[in-house]
Amino acid sequence: MTSESDTSVEQWRNTALLHPQWKRPEEQTAINIICDLLLARTTPQLAATSITSAYEARVRSSDPGLWYLWTAFCDAIHHVGHKIDHLSLLAKMVRSISKVPDVLDENGDPIKQNTRAQIFWRDLPSFAYCFSESALDHVRLEDLDRGLGLNRHRAVQRLLSDNVFAALYLLELDPDGPRYDFWCFRYFAREHFLCTLEVTTATPYQIRRAEIYVPPAAMWILIAGRNIHGYCKDNRDYKGEDVYQRWIGGEHGSELTFLGKDGFSMDRWACWKTRFEQISLLEGIDRDVMDYAVQAARAMGKIEQES
C-alpha cells in the first residue's frame, strides 16, 4: 500500500521532470535518483555515486556548473520536507557527494569550479550559495497579508523544512566536512537565531512574526543544540571588535535584544535561552509555537547541565 509520503515524493518527481530548468539529462537523472532515495530504493552513498557519475562529463566540460542540480535538490526539500526522515536522507546524500573521489583532469589535478576554485566533489561547488539563494527564504508578513507568493501555511512549512535540513546537514558537516559549507551552515544557524531571538516581541506584529520564526529556531536547538553550544563555548566565528547588528524585521519598531560582538559566544547562548523562555510566556501566542519555545529552552538547560 502506497503511503502518503511516498505519494508526495512521486508527485514531486512528476512535476520536477517537467520543469523547464531541469530538462537536461543530468538533472532528469538526479531527480529520479533523489526520489529513489526518498522511496528507500537506494542509499545516500549509492545515490551520491550515481549523481556524480551522471555529472562527470559535464564537470569535465567547459560548462561544469551545478546550479540546476542544487536548485532541483532544494525544490525536493521544499516539497517533501514535512518528513524529517526524508530531510535526514538528503543531508546524508549531500555529505556523501563530498566524499566521492575528486574528478581529475588530464594532468591528474583535481578539477575546480572557476568562481571559487572549489574542487569537484569534495568542496561541493556552489551548494551552500545555491541553498542560501533557493532556500532559507525570509518570510515577510506584509507579503503574506497581501497574498503575495506562497500562502501562509506553505511559507511557514517551507521555512521550517529549510532550517531542519540545514540543522541536519550541519551535524553531517561537523567536524570534518567541507570547510566552506561548515562555515556557511554555522552562519545560517546564527543568522536565524539573530532574526528570531535577538529582536523584541512587544507588539502584535512582532508576535505574529515570532510565530513564524520560532519553530525553525527551536528545531536548530533540538537537532544540533549540542554542536551549537560547543561553538558558543569555543567562540567560533568571533571577529574581535566587530559588532554584528544586521537583522531583519526592524522596519516595524523591533529593537535588538543582544548588543554583543559577532560570532558564537556563551553570552549569545544565554540570550537565546532567555528569549525562548520569554516567548513561551507571551500572552496570546500560538500554543504550538509556545510548545516549541518551551522545548528549546528545556533542551538548552539540559545541554548546559550535561556539559
Explained architecture:
- The protein has 307 residues and is mostly helical.
- It has 12 helices and 2 strands.
- Strands 1-2 form a two-stranded antiparallel sheet.
- The protein is globular and about 60 Å long.
- Residues 247-251 have low confidence and may be disordered.
Summarize this entry quickly.
The chain contains twelve helices and two strands. With 307 residues, the chain is an all-alpha fold.
Record keyword descriptors for this entry:
1% strand, 307 residues, mainly alpha, 12 helices, two-stranded antiparallel ribbon
Termini Cα gap? 46 Å
Number of helices: 12
Beta-strand residue percentage: under 5%
Structural class: mainly alpha
Mean pLDDT: 90
Largest sheet: 2 strands, antiparallel
List the helices and strands and how they pair.
Layout: H1 4-17, H2 25-38, H3 44-59, H4 67-80, H5 84-97, E1 112-113, E2 118-119, H6 127-134, H7 141-145, H8 152-173, H9 179-197, H10 204-233, H11 266-280, H12 287-306
Helix pairs in contact: 1-2, 1-4, 2-3, 2-4, 3-5, 4-6, 4-8, 5-8, 6-9, 8-9, 8-10, 9-10, 10-11, 10-12, 11-12
